[in-house]
User: Fold this.
Amino acid sequence: MPPRSPAPADLPASTRERLLQAGVARAKQHGLRALTVRAVAGDAGVNLGSFVYHFGSREAFIAELIEHWYAPLMERTRDLLVEMDPKQAGLRGLVMGIADWMLAERAFVGHLTADAAAGEPAARAFLLSSGDRHPAIVLQAVVEAQARGQLRQQEDPVHILLALLALVGLPVLLFEAMNGRSFMPPEFAAAFESYAMDREHVARRLDWMLKGLAP
Assistant:
């Protein structure tokens, strides 16, 4: 009897995949600017020639690494939009799905934003293209919610989008930027991590906003 073919879970990760996984892990710890070809290749257990064969350059690698890291969010956001139930709080579920991802990936998100601000080309290019990414899906959901009479129609949907993204993202970015250092009065600093990073608090702020936007 011939040996069975290995199931997908049994197959070793390809060299390309190992390099991307090593890059994401290192970026979460040290940021994109700190990535070097030699360090990533060493983490992945491959030689420098293999890195060059698969990616050609550090810049091309970082650009693909960001897309590789981001792809699950885009896929999940599209799925949530399709699954939205007009009779229920579909927009809330969509935004909380993004919030869950941001909380789980906060280290990478924080580094990505800081690296873009510092001039890392691939990080800047990614953020500059964000208008065609998950924010566009949220904007579509906002417009649809307004059309169904679930949100005030006189409000600019782009303004609502920016408010929703700020509600989810800004506390996370601020917390990551602080990097364990507090720049707040002690009475605020003690509570900030919980209010910024606890899912229940994020959901509560979202409910406040959606209640205020109800017709």
About this structure: Residues 66-213 form one domain. The chain is about 75% helix and 0% strand.
